[in-house]
């Protein structure tokens, strides 16, 4: 005779069989397999199977020897099963109305306690708890978990432009996401995986509150269980006993709990499987598995950190919490500002949009909370971003678990907080210098092995080192989320910002400036953020900034034509009388010259090429304000307008406020008078014909007149290689100014020295 699996599992729990004993017991009495077949299925010998079963008989107090024990236990189980069926049928005798009344009665009894347990949240340095509903932002989940996909690094990088790496695959997922609540409706058993701080617990609390308030699954009774608390109960009850005990506190009887479970009327929310200590892990997993199998009609949702999941629940659908998208970030920030009465939250959003590195962190709810807390103090982000990133990293490495009193298994106990940072810095530096954003698991384990082999009490055996390295990698991923698995056995830093930060940390610690400040690095956009972070980390950035300045000057020192251009920039700037730094004026004339050359190559009525090319970032950073009254009627504004007219709109000359020399005014009016009627129809062919036939020669005369009277608008005839070099030179100088303005510690003398010699020809710098 075969007995139902569900009944046998219940008996195994009742008589406290071990997991191994339960496996043998259930197969033995649920199937008609031979002893050899059962042993084969369990991957043990027939002798080991008989030993297990002898322990099973003892648990049921079936003593004696010989084959009669099987028959006596079977008779006992058959009798118990008849009782089990009677109990089950009595439960099912409730009418639908009676069952609904019971559900509503229990919901009412539990309402206040669920609200108290799940209605508030507290994160990081919040001074007091807040209502979950006030800050909650809808969670989206991915049904296709990216770390499960099989692909190569080339596939992950295929959408990335190496010249302007836009972080595809690092902070943004292209898989289609669905709302978390939709996933709970769709699947009766759901395992929600997510990185540290991704909002898993808040999501479960929100589900409990929404169900409690009849906004979601109002036909169910919610129960929220922190698995860590369940695991630490001294008496080690079963999960069923624990749930029954919780409901008894609500004045709900055991019989009522049994009815609700058997009729599938509970929404069972199990939070933080990853937070259970390793010694309790197997027991808790077994309890969850058994309960979800026995009472499978109920709705189960479990949360766990992605990399910490060590057991696959067969009947559970796994989904992963998606990073926040722009809409979710906007909603979260709006809720935060309204909650804290901070006024206009658009300033926060604008700052995020202007800073891609900080915005990248905002995709994680925990780090977005940090950004909001930091922004509260001065309604802006700190200029020194390295301090902001360090705080975020410390939260992920240590504080987030500490604030919730969670002790995780420390696979790498010899790694202090500082050593963890050193290890991550070594990994970041090695990979970033090679231009690697994704790395294979074996490579990563080798980097870890190279680091830990030099630590006290390190393993000398290569195999043991490899095992330790694998365990450390999994711990870093599970506990901190700083390294994440992007596809099977392919990893990256969770945010490129963190890879840049740890690379900078490595250089800041060893001060290997000659290796850092190479021409390749200062002209490579990939290294820009690293330089900004390093200068922010140093106690004194004088030496580094001087070396960067020296390398920038050398960049164009050997090209006589480029030096002639810089000499003109210096002379022209010195002739202009405005109350601004000479370096700012030099930046202005440098830029309008290059912008004019680019615009005059392809005249176009549709696009203001001159204004599109004009990049006044350095000039503005040094204090120049083109809209200021001191500039409005100055030579600078006159030169700017003339170059704009040359580059963009010779047919739209209508600024009567500007005073030009007579020859200039005559040429401008003559060009304007030849404007064709059909120009406004934006017929590009007609415009080109008009330009070639009537205007090109006049514009050429105008340019010569501007050169004659204004000493601006020269034909520099730069080769493509020289244009490329000038762009590199300009961007490197922009980097230098941004470093100066990054909140770094630099002496006034060095700051003045750099600003005064910015964009000067080499002949003017060396004598200084």
Automatic annotation (TrEMBL):
Q: Where does the NACHT domain start and stop, copy by copy?
A: 188-308
**What InterPro entries does its record include?**
NACHT_NTPase, NCH2, P-loop_NTPase
- Reading the lineage from the top rank, the first entry is Bacteria
Q: Cross-referenced PANTHER family, in alphabetical order?
A: SLR5058 PROTEIN
Name of the protein? NACHT domain family
């Amino acid at each position: 005779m075969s007995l139902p699996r569900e009944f046998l599992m219940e008996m195994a729990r009742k008589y406290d069989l071990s997991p191994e004993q339960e496996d043998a017991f259930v197969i033995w009495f649920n199937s008609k397999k031979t002893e050899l077949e059962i042993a084969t299925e369990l991957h043990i010998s027939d002798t080991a199977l008989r030993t297990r079963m002898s322990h099973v008989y003892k648990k049921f107090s079936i003593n004696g020897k010989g084959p009669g024990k099987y028959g006596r236990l079977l008779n006992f189980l058959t009798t118990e099963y008849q009782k089990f069926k009677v109990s089950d049928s009595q439960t099912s005798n409730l009418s639908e109305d009676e069952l609904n009344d019971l559900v509503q009665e229990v919901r009412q009894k539990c309402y206040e306690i669920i609200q108290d347990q799940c209605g508030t949240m507290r994160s990081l340095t919040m001074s007091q708890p807040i209502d979950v509903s006030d800050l909650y932002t809808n969670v989206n989940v991915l049904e296709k978990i990216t770390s499960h996909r099989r692909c190569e690094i080339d596939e992950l990088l295929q959408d990335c432009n190496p010249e302007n790496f836009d972080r595809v695959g690092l902070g943004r997922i292209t898989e289609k996401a669905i709302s978390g609540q939709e996933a709970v409706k769709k699947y009766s058993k759901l395992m929600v995986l997510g990185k540290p701080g991704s909002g898993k617990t808040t999501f479960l609390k929100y589900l409990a509150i929404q169900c409690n308030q009849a906004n979601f699954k109002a036909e169910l009774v919610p129960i929220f269980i922190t698995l860590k608390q369940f695991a630490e109960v001294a008496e080690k009850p079963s999960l069923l006993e624990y749930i029954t005990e919780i409901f008894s506190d609500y004045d709900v009887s055991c019989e009522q709990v049994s009815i609700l479970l058997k009729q599938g009327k509970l929404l069972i929310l199990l939070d933080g499987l990853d937070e259970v200590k390793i010694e309790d892990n197997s027991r808790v997993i077994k309890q969850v598995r058994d309960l979800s199998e026995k009472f499978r009609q109920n709705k189960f949702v479990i949360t766990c950190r992605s990399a910490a999941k060590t057991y696959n629940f067969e009947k559970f659908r796994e989904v992963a919490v998606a990073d926040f998208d722009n809409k979710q970030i906007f909603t979260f920030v709006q809720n935060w500002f309204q909650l804290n009465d901070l006024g206009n939250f658009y300033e926060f959003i604008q700052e995020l949009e202007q800073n891609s590195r900080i915005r990248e962190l905002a995709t994680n709810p925990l780090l977005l909370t940090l950004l909001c807390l930091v922004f509260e103090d001065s309604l802006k982000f700190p200029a020194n971003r390295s301090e902001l990133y360090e705080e975020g990293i410390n939260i992920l490495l240590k504080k987030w678990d500490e604030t919730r009193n969670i002790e995780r298994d420390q696979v790498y106990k010899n790694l202090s907080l500082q050593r963890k940072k050193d290890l991550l810095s070594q990994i970041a530096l090695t990979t970033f210098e090679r231009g690697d954003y994704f790395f294979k698991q074996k490579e990563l384990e080798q980097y870890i092995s190279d680091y830990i082999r030099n630590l006290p009490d390190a393993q000398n055996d290569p195999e043991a080192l490899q095992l330790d390295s694998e365990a450390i990698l999994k711990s870093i991923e599970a506990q901190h989320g700083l390294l994440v698995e992007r596809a099977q056995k392919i990893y990256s830093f969770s945010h490129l910002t963190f890879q840049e930060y740890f690379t900078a940390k490595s250089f800041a610690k060893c001060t290997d400036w000659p290796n850092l400040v190479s021409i390749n690095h200062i002209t490579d956009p990939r290294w820009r953020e690293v330089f900004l972070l390093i200068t922010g980390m140093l106690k004194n950035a004088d030496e580094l900034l001087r070396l960067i300045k020296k390398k920038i000057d050398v960049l164009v020192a050997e090209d006589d034509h480029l030096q002639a251009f810089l000499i003109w920039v210096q002379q022209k700037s010195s002739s202009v009388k405005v109350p601004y730094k000479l370096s700012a004026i030099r930046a202005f004339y440098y830029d309008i010259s290059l912008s004019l050359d680019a615009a005059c190559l392809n005249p176009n009525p549709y696009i203001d090429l001159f204004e599109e090319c004009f990049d006044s970032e350095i000039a503005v950073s040094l204090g120049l304000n083109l809209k200021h009254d001191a500039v409005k009627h100055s030579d600078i504004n006159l030169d700017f307008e003339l170059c704009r007219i040359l580059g963009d709109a010779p047919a739209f000359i209508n600024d009567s406020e500007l005073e030009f020399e007579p020859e200039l005014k005559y040429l401008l009016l003559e060009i304007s008078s030849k404007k064709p009627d059909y120009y406004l129809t934006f017929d590009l062919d007609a415009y080109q014909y008009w330009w070639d036939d009537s205007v090109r020669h006049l514009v050429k005369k105008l340019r010569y007149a501007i050169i004659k009277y204004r000493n601006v608008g020269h034909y520099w005839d730069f080769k493509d290689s020289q244009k490329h070099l000038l762009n590199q030179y300009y961007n490197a100088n922009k980097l230098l100014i941004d470093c100066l303005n990054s909140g770094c510690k630099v002496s006034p003398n060095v700051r003045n020295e750099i600003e005064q010699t910015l964009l000067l020809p080499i002949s003017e710098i060396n004598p200084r």
